[in-house]
Write a structure and sequence with these properties.
It contains 19 helices and seven strands. The protein is mainly α. The protein has a single domain, classed as Glycosyltransferase, CATH 1.50.10.10. A three-stranded antiparallel sheet has the order 1-2-3. A hairpin with a 2-residue loop joins strand 6 and strand 7. Helix 5 packs antiparallel against helix 7, helix 7 runs parallel beside helix 10 and helix 14 packs across helix 19. The longest helix is centred in the middle third of the chain and has 20 residues. It is globular.
């Protein structure tokens, strides 16, 4: 039996190799420094911090910013993260980022080693803010900043002079998706902090329960309640039901209270789920998260089957695959900031490989072994780190060749250390238009990445391909931690 499994395993690896000859013939770097990439991925979050920076801040070209957020509303909303290359705090993607960062720590914390403390700091920077944003009953502050004014300017976060508009949802103006995602983040973080900060974990979990109750009691999309502020930037396209299921799943994992499991199963009982996972669509993540506990469900195969559908729609050797790959081997789906797909989907595949060991998944006429997932995930990580047709790392600061002109205000403008006089709204435009490299290294940033044909032009104005975001990096923390010890 062992020999048979070995033969099947080798055949599956050969299929992957044949599909992606560029990845496996000549471009593979067997010596990637995953520990260095891991350190840098966590360091990236320091470059996205908003608020009063601590004395331990390592990216020192960043300074204090947005110290009056929420003041006009009589609430403290200082802190948190800017989502991308702008100076806005969008609650929906920020919460998803914290959920994935917490999940990275839960699943792969044993491999974080000396970076565990830095990962904890990065997570708590976000969860402290989410606690502030949910401090009032039946009210959630979901955004700080005017996206239209902000996107009309090119200025450092330290210099912001645009309106710091505060956007919230409440009983009269519901936002189930953003509230449930925040509940998921707080519940996941409570698990991540349980062993090291039990009192803080208790606080996170209690708040998660309260926010989830609000999300379910007052149902509706924030598209309708506060749409002009959040759309088209982080408009919810998949509906809020997936976030409700996602939040319930994390609360079940954190509390073991079966009412949350029952809620997730009943709400999620649909014949077909898309194989999607990102800040907007949580379906594949739910399938993976709940597949671990599928034996406790009345229908013991339901979430296993959904996880299997995800696998068969994703891995390259599956005859029913719907996910496309670039000629160089990168997972690719239409839309901006494609790098969310290989990072988030790779994270799910790696988690599944740990859940199911050597159990096969049936994809039509082909059986896929979870150990093969690891090879698929490694091909994605190595592509991102430089094993691609351009031999370019898409992580800023990693390797000899990486993007120099990322779409990021703070990175592209001289820091206050070298240019203490502030930039007003349009005064940074010449730096935006310049072809010079960014003066400040946003170490660890992942950008939108190459186009479907593996081309990348390192153009600051091409935000779809050159802008970094927090939710691209969070799943990579867990993946890189794993490969640091298991390459």
């Amino acid at each position: 039996m062992a020999i048979t499994r070995l033969i099947c395993y080798l055949l599956q690896v050969m299929v992957v190799m044949m599909m992606f000859p560029m990845v496996f013939n000549g471009l593979v770097n067997a010596n990637h420094d995953y520990a260095d990439a891991l350190m840098k991925s966590i360091l990236f979050f320091e470059g996205q911090r908003s608020g009063k920076l601590p004395s331990t801040q390592r990216l020192t070209w960043r300074k204090d910013s947005a110290l009056q957020d929420g003041h006009d509303m009589g609430v403290d909303l200082v802190g948190g993260y800017y989502d991308a290359g702008d100076n806005l705090k969008f609650g929906f993607p920020m919460a998803f980022t914290m959920t994935l960062l917490a999940w990275s720590m839960i699943e792969f914390g044993e491999y974080l080693g000396p970076e565990f403390g830095h990962a904890s700091e990065a997570l708590q920077w976000g969860t402290d803010y989410l606690l502030k944003a949910t401090a009032e009953a039946n009210k959630v502050y979901v955004q700080v900043g005017d996206p239209y004014a902000d996107h009309n300017c090119w200025e450092r976060p330290e210099d912001m002079d645009t309106a710091r508009t505060v956007v919230y949802v409440d009983a009269q103006h519901p936002g189930s998706e953003v509230a449930a995602e925040i509940a998921a983040a707080l519940a996941a973080a409570s698990i991540a902090f349980r062993a090291s900060q039990s009192n803080y974990a208790d606080k996170l979990l209690q708040r998660s329960i309260q926010v989830f109750d609000f999300a379910t009691k007052y149902r509706g999309s924030y598209n309708d309640s506060v749409g002009r502020w959040v759309c088209p930037f982080y408009c919810d396209f998949s509906g809020y039901e997936d976030e409700l299921i996602w939040g319930a799943a994390w609360l079940f994992k954190a509390t073991k209270n079966v009412q949350y499991l029952n809620f997730a199963v009943i709400t999620g009982r649909k014949p077909v789920w898309p194989a999607e996972f990102g800040w907007d669509d949580k379906h594949a993540g739910i399938s993976v998260l709940l597949s671990k506990v599928y034996i406790f469900l009345k229908d013991s195969t339901e979430y296993y089957n959904k996880a299997e559908d995800f696998v068969c729609n994703t891995v390259p050797q599956s005859p029913t695959r719907t996910l496309k790959y670039s000629p160089g081997g990168l997972m690719f789906k239409p839309g901006g900031s494609n790098m969310q797909n290989p990072t988030s989907i790779s994270f799910l595949l790696l988690v599944l490989s740990r859940y199911y060991g050597q159990q096969n998944f049936n994809c039509g006429s082909v059986q896929v072994n979870p150990s093969t997932f690891v090879h698929v995930v490694k091909s994605q990580v190595d592509y991102i780190l430089g094993d691609n047709p351009l031999q370019m790392s898409y992580m800023v600061g990693y390797g000899a060749k990486f993007p120099q002109r990322i779409h990021h205000r703070g990175s592209s403008l001289p820091s206050k250390d070298t240019h203490p006089i502030g930039f007003k709204c349009k005064e940074g435009t010449p730096y935006f238009q310049s072809t010079n490299p960014n003066p400040n290294l946003l170490t660890g940033a992942l950008i939108g990445g190459p186009d479907p044909n593996d081309a990348f032009f390192d153009n600051r104005s091409d935000f779809a391909h050159s802008e970094p975001t927090t939710y691209l990096v969070a799943p990579m923390v867990g993946v890189l931690a794993y490969f640091k010890d298991n390459a």
